[in-house]
Structure prediction request, 631 residues.
Amino acid sequence: MIAANLPALQVVLPLLGAVLCAFLQRGVWAWGIALVVSVAMPFVAAGLLIQVLDGGIISYAMGGWEPPIGIEYRIDVVNAFLLLLVSVIGAVIMPYAKRSVEKEIAPEHQPWFYAIYLLCLCGLLGIVITGDAFNVFVFMEVSSLATYALIAMGRDRRALLAAYQYLIMGTIGATFYVIGVGLLYSMTGTLNLADMANRLEGIENSRAVLAALAFLTVGISLKLALFPLHVWLPNAYTYAPSMATAFLAATATKVAVYLLLRYFFTVFGASIIFTRLPVAEIFLILSLAAMFGASIVAVFQDNVKRMLAYSSVAQIGYITLGIAIANKTGLTGGIVHLFNHALIKGALFMAIGAVFYQIGSVKLDDLAGLGKRMPITMGAFVMAGLSIIGVPGTVGFVSKWYLGLGAFEQGWWWLVFLLVASSLISVVYIGRIVEVVWFRPVSAAAKRAKEPPLSMLLPTLLLVAATVYFGFDTSLTAGIAERAAEWLLAGIR
Amino acid sequence: MRLDVIFRVTAKIIIPFALVFALYVQFHGDFGPGGGFQAGVVAAAMVIFYAIIFGLEAAQKVFPPRLVELMVPAGIAIFAGVGVISMLLGENYLNYSPFAANPALGQEYGIILVEIGVLVTVSGTMVAIFYSFVGRGR
Prediction:
């Protein structure tokens, strides 16, 4: 019974957990529930991934209503991979969350914080698992509303403004998404994504379908913070509580990228997107603008969280670059970077959250000399930083290797130089932090700092270890990403 | 407005009928227009109406903030719980057919239960939003 209902459990368990957290008005119990649910999620996701790798697509009819009439949960290699990614990040972050949240969130708000976090998890997993266009919208709203609340719970008063800014942008994105879905529904008469793909055959060139594609692309690009639609992201990541930043940076934008992949390759099909429309060219230009523009802006930031946020915008550029290259190797690079960047940014934001826990600041000047006081945390930070740069032996190198190879296959050899050049900019901003942290005299703020508690240190180290491990053993990440890329390029047709 | 006799009398006449109407909308939802969301809005609007006429304290005596805060997750718990019961009865999540010997009847029971969950959460949420806005700066 449990094996057959795994798709439902993936979404229902976080929802029930959120309800329990809201009932029990005690921070520690709420944390316990969130921990149990978050740790259970990777097992559910792994179960689904194993079933998919063995037996192909899983289709689960919600409420017993058969697709395409009812809501279908449809799991193939691509979203099984994403489900595993999101749930693993959630599971790693929960032990870390306890001390961080105790420090940053008022006691009476802690149960609500965990309830909202679980709702956010539920929404993100729901977007990934469902095969129904409107159901995606519902889960998108669940996760977005939860995200706004998570950001607004930051200590800084500017968190409210950041949350409001994201609320406006996110709502525009969601509205565009619904307009797109509405147009597609009027043209095809179905909301089931797989069914929609079949029924689009023959009417791909109609103006309504092209308008739908445009609305969907812009709406989802707002959610995934594609340059120049990224303006909500730096403030949101800077002022959100540390735990929320680490979780969102590692998962939320990745889920939006998945949704874009799903529409581009499964619903519309690669032939429309890349041969008849200049989507690849547009994404190529925007990705390059993100890789260079956002990286350069990151160099000049004095707040480390904001610096990492701009770095996220740049890294999303690498992921969308994989979409723009659009051959198997390039797409593999994009998908594998989805996974790798989640690990790296999770680790970086968790390390910086541990710094905030100890010294109460993330200003670059206050971090001076911290390497002498918190050598393990800062060592972990530097290791993850090397991954962002793409040093061989780290996951960052694996992604860039595939992207570079894909560019070569496409005949875009100049792109390889641009990839290296943009990596050099990340050397500058990571190098700035390394210089301040390890080679400056200890600042007043860092004087009494010491290593954070083990519950925060171990999850951070675990993610850093993963960035190194998957840098050497690419069979799991790149292997599955390759199958996912193959699956996407084959499309439904 | 506590001293205005017209408002007070009108409110006392309207509120019970409107609450019954909310129940009508609620239980009519599985046959025609209506359902938990609309019923929840009508019911919550009456609590808000009562608070506007008789004051926040009076409304909070009837609907304590703690109860309202519990109603929000309670409704979701009912909704999600119904789905879990379907799974325990060996069907897919939210498939109500096994709730009665006759699957069509089972579907009806399931809808009614789920709609009650919606009613509880929607009315709770609306009143909670009202309380938190009105309670600001007190």
